[in-house]
Amino acid sequence: MKCPICGRETIDGGYCKFHEGARQVVIRKYEKWRKAMGISWKEYLSKIAKNPLTGEWAKEVALYLLEEENKKNVKNG
Amino acid sequence: MGKYTLIITEKPDTARRIASALDQDQNEKGTNEKGVPYYLARRDTDIVVVPALGHLYTVSAEKKGSSSYPVFNYKWVPRFVAERRARHVRKWLDVIMKLSKNADRFVDACDYDMEGSVIGYCILKYACGGMEKASRRMKFSTLAEEELEKAYVESLPHLDFALIEAGKTRHEVDWLYGINLSRALTFAAKNWSGKYRTLSTGRVQGPLLKFLVSRENTARSFVPTPYWQIKAKLQMNGQIFTAEFANQAIETWKEAYTLSTECKGRGQIEKVTVKRFQQPAPVPFDLGALQVEAYSLFGYDLKKTLDAAQGLYLDALISYPRTSSQKLPPRIGFKSILKSLGSTIEYKGLTAHLLAKTVLKPHEGSREDPAHPAIYPTGKLPRPFLNKSERNIWDIIVRRFMAAFGEPAIGQSTKADITINGNVFCLRGRQTIQQGWQQFYAPYVNSEETLLPPLNKGQPVDFKKVIVEDRFTRPPPRYNPSSLLQKMEEVGIGTKATRADSIQTLYKRRYVRNERMTVTDLGFEVLEVLKSHCQQVVSVEMTKELEDRINRIGQNSEKREDILADAIRILKPVLKELKQKELRIGERLSNAFEKTRLEESVIGACPSCKTGKLLVIYSRKTGKRFVGCTNYFTGLCKTSFALPQRGTIRLNGGKCSACGWPTLQVRMRGKTCVLCFNPDCASKEGKRRDQN
Q: A53, B5, B104, B351: which is deepest, by most CB within 10 A?
C-alpha cells in the first residue's frame, strides 16, 4: 500500500511512517486548540494548514484530512 | 653541502618560519626542486627544512584496482597511489626521499597533535627509509622565533609513538567503515539505476545524520499551539514603559480578553525586587568555541574561521588553533604579550589597564589539551594587509584573551510587581553596574540596558493601554553548522580537526541543504537504510565509545589490534545483509536521489495553478531553456517563462522586491545579476515603456 499523501510505503495500510507521525501530532493538538479557541475540527485543520509555523508533513496531513472532510460533506449532501 | 639535519614540517609556510628562526643570521635560503620548496639554514650544523602538504600517505586497499566490497585488507600508501587528484604528491615525495639520503639527523616538526604526528611518522618511515625511530620531535604551539628555537634546542628524543598509534588507528577504522559502507550504498544505487553517484557514510557521518533527521522529523510534524500574552503600556514620570502580565502565557482566548478588559485605569506598585548578579569573565577560545563565536558574530562558516585562524597561525600572530584547551599557562608570558599588543592604538588603553594589575590570572575553562594551550595572540602585530575575515578573527582572539584577565561584570536587575484589579503585571529593568571584562570584549558584548525610574511600593501607575498579543509555540530550530558542531562537541563525536569537514560532507553528498540544515529525501533514505540494516553505525554511543577507545591508545591503555578486529567483526554481518538486499536498497536510494535533485531545481510555487512547482527546464527538442511548471507533464498547467539563453543560471532562493516572485541568479561574462522572470513585474515597467 502507498501513502495517500506522498506515495511512500505505508505502515499497516494507512499512511507512511512520516505522515502517520504527523497525523498523530495533528490529532493530539486539536484538544488544545479547541480549549483555547473553541473551534471545530474542520476550522482547526484549516487554521493549522495556513499557519506558517506548522511543519510540512503536518500541513500536508491537515490539507488531506480537510479534503476528506469536504468529500464526506458532499456525499452526505 | 655535506651531511645535514633534515627537519620535516606539515606545511610550506611553517618550513620557512622554522628555517628563519633556526638560521644563525635569520637569513634562510629558499630553494625548490620540481616545484617543491625547501629551506637551508646554518647554525652549528647545516639544516634543511622540507615541508609536507598535509597527509602524503593514506590508507588504501591492499589489492589495487578492485572496487568491490567487503574489503578488510589495507596498507599505507603514498596518496598519489590511492587518489587520482593527488598526482602532485609523487614529486613531493621524490624530493623528500632525495633530501633524506644525505641527512644524518632527522627532526619531526609537524603540528603536535594526532594528525601532525601521523603525517611526520609516515614520511620518516616510508620516505626517509625507516628513520621514524631515529628522529627527534619538536613541540611548539606558536611559530614565534623564540619558541621555535627553544623547541629545536630542547627537542624530544623520540616521536610520540602512542599518539601515532592512536592516529593511525583512527584513520584505519574510519577507512574500514567509510569504504565498505559507502561502497555498499553507492553500488546498490548504481546497480539499480545504472548511474554512478557517490553516496557515503561513515563512523561520524551516520550519527550526524541521525541528529539532523530527528530534529527534522520534529520540525516537519510540528503543530503550533496558540496562546496569548498581555502587555500594558504604563505611564510613570511622564515616560511610557511596557510591563508584561505576570502569568506570561494565557491558554485561552476568552481568558485573555476578559483580563484585558479588567486591566484599565490606575494600578499601584506592590513590590520592588532589586538583585545584583555577576557575570564571570569568558574563558579563552578553543577551536570549537572560536568557530561558534565567529559564526554568531560574523556569520562565518566553520571552514572559513578555521582557514582564517590557520592563516594567522602561519603568520605567527596566534598560537596553534586546532586545540581543545581552555587553559592559558603562565609560561606563554602574559605580560610580554600584553605589552606588545599595547603598542597598537586599538588595544593600548585596555592592555595598560591589565598591566597595572599586580597579578595576571586568566579565567580558564575545564577543558584541557595535552598538546596545546587555548588559542592566544603571540604578541606579534599583524601586517596591514590582513583580509577582513583574518582581521575579525584576530580581533576576537585578542579581545577574548584580554577579557579572560578581566574582573567579573556586575549587573543589576529590577522587577516591579504592579497590581490592577487583582491582576499582577511585571515591569523589568536591567543595567550594568560594573563593566569588568566587558570593556575588553566591548564591540561583541550584547548587553541591552533597560533603565527604570525610581520605583516605590504603593506608588500609583497609570495603565495607558492594554494589548493582547496572539502567539503560537514555535518548533525547535533546525541545526545550523555552528549548533551542530556544538552538539558534536557535547556528545564527543569526531575530532576538533575533522568536525567541520564531516559537516561539509553532508552538504556535498546532498543529504542536507540550506544554512538552517534541512534534511533532503536522500538524507532521510540513507539514514533509513543504515537504521534498518546497521543500527550500530548510526549509534552515537558506539561512535563515542570508539572515540574513547582510540584516545586510550594514546595513553597506552588500549590495543590497536583489538579495535580494528572489533570494527571488522561489526562490519562483516552488516555488509552481508546490505549485499543481500542490494536491489531493494538501490531502488530506494535512487528514487530519493532523483527526488532530491528535482527539489533542488525547484524555483518556487507556480503562480498560475498554485499546486505545481516552477523548474528550469531544458527542451530536448530545441535545446533551449525556460521556466516551466511541473504540472505541465500531467497536462494541468502550461505556464512557462522565457529565460536568457546565455550565461549560467543558479537558484538564489531570493524574491523580487517589486512583485514577490522568486528570482534567479544569472552569471554572464563575469558579471552576476538577479533576474525576475515575471514578464508583468512592476520593476520592468520602465523598460516596457521604452520599448513602446
A: B351
**Would you say residue B379 lies in a domain?**
yes
Residue B477 maps to a domain: no
Q: Which sequence spans correspond to the domains of chain A?
A: 17-75
What is the C-alpha to C-alpha distance for residues B291 and B392, in angstroms, rounded to an integer?
12
Based on the fold, state whether residues B95 and B186 are members of the same structural domain. no
Beta-carbon contacts of B647 under 8 Å, excluding residues fewer than 6 positions away, are B666, B667, B668, B669
The answer to whether B350 and B440 are in contact (CB under 8 A) is yes
Asked if A29 lies within 8 A of B474 by C-beta distance, the reply is no
Is residue B1 within 8 A of residue B102, CB to CB? The reply is yes
Q: Which residue has the cell 579581545?
A: B399
Report yes or no on B293 lying in a domain. Answer: yes
Interface confidence (ipTM) of the complex: 0.96
pLDDT digits (tens, 9 = 90+) for B524-582: 999 999 988 888 888 888 888 888 899 899 888 899 999 999 999 999 999 999 999 99
**Chain B: residue whose CA lies nearest to A36:** B252
Q: Rounded distance, CA A44 to CA A29, Å? A: 10
Residue keyed to cell 578581566: B406
List the single residue in B with minimal CA-CA distance to A28. B223
Which residue from B221, B472, B474 is facing A22, i.e. has the nearest CB? B221
B36-42 and B29-33 as β-strands: parallel, antiparallel, unpaired?
Answer: antiparallel
Question: In terms of domains, do B39 and B149 share one?
Answer: yes
- Distance, CA of B527 to CA of A8 (rounded, Å): 16
* Pair B304, B446 in one domain: no
Q: Is residue B490 part of a domain?
A: no
Task: Read off the pLDDT of residues B515-529 as tens digits, 9 standing for 90 and up.
Answer: 899 999 899 999 999
pLDDT tens-digit series, residues B238-252: 889 999 998 778 999
For residue A58, give the nearest of B221, B474, B524 by CB distance: B221
> Which CATH number fits the domain that encloses residue B360?
1.10.290.10
Half-sphere exposure of B214 (CA within 13 A, CB side): 11
Burial B568-584, CB ≥16 within 10 A → b, else e: eebbeebbeebeeebee
Chain B nearest C-alpha distance from A45 (Å): 10
The verdict on B418 and B398 lying in the same domain is no
Selected residue of A2, A27, A57 to mutate for chain B interface (largest B Cβ count, 10 A): A57
Hey, which residues does B318 pair with through a beta bridge? B377
> Do B28 and B154 belong together in one domain?
yes
Active-site amino acid positions of B? 320
Cβ contacts of A18 on chain B, cutoff 8 Å: 217, 220-221, 524
Task: Compute the nearest-CA separation of A68 from chain B (Å).
Answer: 18
Inspect the interface and report whether the beta carbons of A57 and B472 lie closer than 8 Å: no
Q: Structural domain tally of chain B?
A: 5
Q: Is residue B372 within 8 Å of residue B326, measured between CB atoms?
A: no
Distance separating alpha carbons of residues B439 and B137, to the nearest angstrom: 41
Reduced to 3 DSSP states, what percent helix, strand and coil does chain B have, rounded to the nearest 5? 40, 25, 35
DSSP states of B6-18? EEEESSHHHHHHH
Report the C-alpha dihedral over residues B684, B686, B689, B691, rounded to 10 degrees: -70
User: E strand or H helix at B36, and its extent?
Assistant: strand B36-42
In the block, cell 620540481 appears at B34
Test A22 with B253 for CB contact under 8 angstroms: no
Last residue within a domain, chosen from B571, B594, B617: B594
Which residue range(s) make up the domain with B309?
A: 287-403
The answer to whether residue B691 scores a pLDDT higher than 70 is no
